[in-house]
């Protein structure tokens, strides 16, 4: 069968292939906001909301790989922050890309408002190219205009001018949704958060369940309790009785004028066909060849751009970064000096369990907990606002003494505890749920100085005057019945060792914690035997 195409059909197909509307990675219906040099200032720099901006090139393979995760992040952040993209391959956008120092694609920048309007704080996004990582990083940068109110100052807050919105909650942290709403209503509604432990405030507004949002309209109007879902659109509809969200510029439909121009061109082509089917059709056929040949010239231009970009900063791999890891306190002295002196900060300790065999893996709860702890630490450490997290291997004698002294489970079980040697208290993680949310809630409670604490025995704490904790370690070993072998200085072997020779132990510093896939440790038994390296 022979297929016949009219010259006009070929011409129309060429037009569609070369339409500039489809030049970028993101369509007009994409949740990703398309920004240009002309609209950047209005949509991003002048906005009260935090944004993440991707600078990309359509031909970049890494950019194409990022696209699905970036659009997923945009959907998750809808109503909370802006997820935008700039096509650096467009001539009009090249000055903006140059202004941001873009050298490789994709480059991501987090833009958040500062105290000076129109002059936002800009920082590089260095996290994993995954939707969850992007969302977490952006949420972290959403400004917090929500006031924390207690029983002592609730009357003062409510008595001020203007409408108030108060969220009663069991959580100590402020959610991204409430922070975003506070931005939407800056100047019209003041937002506050009150913990469930503030009994007088809850009683004042008739709050008996949590979370609960209360609107105080102001003036002589009575407070109104919100019983709907804690979702942005529903809350906005509820708050509409006193105010509407501040207007934030919405993007115009990209290149609408050009699209209309293309439609007019197609219409004119049809009219020309009706007027003269002969000569006009042949001319259209020639034009179609010309247009089809001109469109690929961009590929040659892109190839040159690729070669230029390859000499500059290489694009990062589109795979996720290696998971964050906890530092290992492998020796007794490490644990004692880091977390058990009178000047030590709060320490989160993951006490690793013993394994049933050399080839056995860590229990799933332990693996999940280590990953969750590492992610929470990584999230907060960027702001320098979190205490340190550590992992303690089962062969760390000081860790075993901690278990015994505090009366917690034996070395066969995995435990997570918080220790404050300076204030002489400790706290145990309860429950079997080690998901990130559960772990982060537990950490937040510690940060907010909430929850029940146990008294830490003073004998566990070393004073600065005691110097290095050799005495404490010695006492710990004695408590567990662990004896140091007497080593011959010449041979390096235990004097009372059996006939089978024992190799020297490798330095304990070689222990390296790898979370969550594995953990490399040396298991040191009471008897002088060949050290083994476990692959967890």
TrEMBL record:
Domain Thioredoxin: 6-144
Pfam families associated with the record: Thioredox_PDIA6_C, Thioredoxin
SUPFAM superfamilies attached to this UniProt entry: Thioredoxin-like
InterPro entries membership: Thioredox_PDIA6_C, Thioredoxin-like_sf, Thioredoxin_CS, Thioredoxin_domain
Region (Disordered): 242-329, 484-536
Biased composition (Basic and acidic residues): 262-306
Molecular function, one GO term: protein-disulfide reductase activity
UniProt keyword Cytoplasm, yes or no: no
Organism name: Trichodelitschia bisporula
Alphabetical list of CDD domains matching this protein: PDI_a_MPD1_like (cd03002), PDI_b_family (cd02981)
GO cellular component: endoplasmic reticulum lumen
GO terms for biological process, alphabetical: response to endoplasmic reticulum stress
Keywords linked to the UniProt accession: Disulfide bond, Isomerase, Redox-active center, Signal
Subcellular location(s) of the protein: Endoplasmic reticulum lumen
Signal peptide coordinates: 1-23
Known EC number: 5.3.4.1
Record protein name field: protein disulfide-isomerase
Catalysis performed (reactions): Catalyzes the rearrangement of -S-S- bonds in proteins
PANTHER family attached to this UniProt entry: PROTEIN DISULFIDE-ISOMERASE A6
């Amino acid at each position: 069968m022979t297929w016949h195409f009219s010259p006009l059909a070929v011409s129309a197909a060429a037009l569609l292939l070369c339409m500039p509307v489809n030049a970028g990675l993101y369509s007009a219906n994409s949740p990703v906001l398309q920004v240009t040099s002309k609209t950047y200032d209005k949509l991003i720099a002048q906005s009260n909301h935090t944004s993440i901006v991707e600078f990309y090139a359509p031909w970049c393979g890494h950019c194409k790989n990022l696209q699905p995760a970036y659009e997923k992040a945009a959907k998750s952040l809808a109503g909370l922050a802006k997820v935008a993209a700039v096509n650096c391959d467009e001539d009009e956008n090249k000055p903006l890309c140059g202004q941001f120092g873009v050298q490789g694609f994709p480059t991501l920048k987090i833009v958040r408002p500062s105290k000076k309007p129109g002059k936002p704080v800009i920082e590089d996004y260095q996290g994993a190219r995954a939707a969850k990582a992007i969302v977490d990083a952006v949420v972290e940068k959403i400004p917090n205009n929500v006031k924390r109110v207690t029983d002592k100052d609730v009357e003062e807050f409510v008595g001020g001018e203007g409408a108030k919105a108060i969220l009663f909650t069991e959580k100590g942290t402020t959610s991204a949704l409430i922070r975003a709403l506070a931005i939407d209503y800056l100047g019209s509604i003041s937002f506050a958060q009150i913990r469930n432990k503030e009994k007088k405030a809850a009683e004042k507004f008739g709050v008996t369940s949590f979370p609960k949002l209360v609107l105080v309209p102001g003036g002589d109007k009575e407070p109104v309790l919100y019983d709907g879902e804690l979702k942005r659109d529903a809350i906005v509809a509820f708050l509409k009785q006193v105010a509407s969200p501040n207007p934030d510029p919405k993007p115009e439909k990209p290149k609408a004028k050009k699209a209309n121009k293309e439609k007019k061109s197609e219409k004119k082509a049809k009219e020309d066909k009706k007027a003269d089917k002969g000569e006009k059709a042949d001319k259209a056929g020639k034009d179609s060849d010309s247009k089809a040949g001109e469109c690929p010239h961009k590929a040659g231009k892109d190839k040159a751009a690729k070669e230029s970009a390859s000499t500059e900063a290489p694009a990062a791999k589109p795979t996720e970064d290696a998971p964050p890891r906890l530092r290992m306190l492998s020796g007794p002295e490490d644990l004692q000096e880091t977390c058990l002196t009178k000047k030590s900060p709060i320490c989160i300790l993951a006490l690793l369990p013993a394994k049933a065999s050399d080839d056995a893996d860590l229990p799933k709860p332990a693996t999940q907990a280590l990953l969750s702890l590492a992610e929470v630490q990584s999230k907060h450490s960027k702001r320098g606002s979190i205490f340190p997290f550590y992992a303690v291997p089962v062969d760390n004698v000081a860790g075993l003494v901690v278990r015994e002294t505090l009366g917690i489970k034996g070395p066969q079980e995995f435990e997570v505890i918080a220790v404050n040697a300076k204030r002489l208290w400790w706290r145990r993680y309860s429950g079997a749920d080690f998901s990130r949310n559960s772990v982060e809630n537990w950490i937040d409670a510690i940060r907010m100085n909430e929850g029940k604490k146990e008294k830490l025995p003073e004998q566990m704490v070393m004073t600065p005057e005691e110097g290095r904790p050799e005495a404490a370690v010695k006492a710990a070993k004695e408590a567990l019945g662990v004896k140091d072998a007497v080593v011959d200085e010449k041979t390096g072997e235990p004097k009372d060792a059996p006939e089978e020779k024992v190799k020297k132990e490798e330095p304990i510093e070689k222990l390296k914690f790898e979370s969550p896939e594995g953990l490399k440790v040396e298991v040191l038994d009471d008897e002088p035997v060949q050290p083994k390296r476990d692959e967890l």
